[in-house]
Design brief:
The chain is α/β, with parallel strands linked by helices. The chain contains 7 helices and 7 strands; from the N terminus they run βαβααββαβαββαα. A hairpin with a 2-residue loop joins strand 3 (76-84) and strand 4. The model is unreliable at 175-185 (pLDDT under 50).
Length: 201
């Protein structure tokens, strides 16, 4: 299985990249020795100029084209962004603006973000989840937000492990223990047939 981490961190070192690395390590561990997870990291910081050129010309440069191929061919994605102005960064959004609109259809995606305060944690639900739902990706139930005070505190490792387990399940076709336990949908009877069954002979 191929896992691609898309990191929009701007600094070096970056807490955003660190969170992406920890999530990828948890996915690899969750897949087990027989899982064979190949991890590739796409650093958007290094692609900023080519992303800007693609927005204005409509054509990706070589490095950006390689990133597009990696994302398109991945069995699963981890996408991580720092929070700016209560949402994902402009660089993060610009990458997915120029990516082919069908590239993420049906692809398992784990959303994650970093920020200076826990007050921004809802960015996962009000910004990131709707974005990837629009792109027709399959977003895992658990998103991971890490504020500055979360590093080294209790709870972060548990959230990382739970989200990674869900992604492993989707990548391997098992549904992460969510879809597998969902009851089958009831049979849909057309309305006309229901009316016909109610008629008195």
């Amino acid at each position: 299985m191929k896992l691609v981490v898309v990191s929009a961190g701007l600094s070096v070192p970056s807490s955003t990249r660190l969170l992406g690395d920890r999530l990828a390590a948890a996915v690899s561990a969750g897949a087990g020795a027989g899982g064979g997870v190949e991890v590739e990291v796409v650093e958007l910081r290094d692609l900023a100029v080519e992303i800007a050129h693609n927005l204005t010309t409509g054509f990706p440069g070589p490095a950006l084209g390689a990133a597009f191929s990696a994302v398109t061919e991945a069995d699963g994605l981890i996408v991580v962004t720092p929070v700016f102005s209560a949402s994902y960064s402009g660089l993060f959004k610009s990458f997915f603006d120029v990516l082919d609109r069908d590239a993420l259809t049906g692809k398992p995606v784990l959303v994650a973000a970093t920020g200076g305060s826990a007050r921004h944690s809802l960015v996962l639900e009000h910004a990131m989840r709707p974005l990837f739902a629009y792109l027709r990706a399959v977003v895992v139930p658990t998103g991971v937000y890490a504020a500055s005070e979360d590093w080294g505190a209790e709870g972060l490792a548990e959230r990382i492990g739970r989200a990674a387990g869900e992604l492993v399940g989707l990548m391997s076709g098992g549904g992460g223990g969510v879809a597998a336990t969902r009851p089958s949908a009831p049979e849909v009877v057309p309305f006309a047939e229901q009316l016909a069954a109610l008629r008195v002979p």
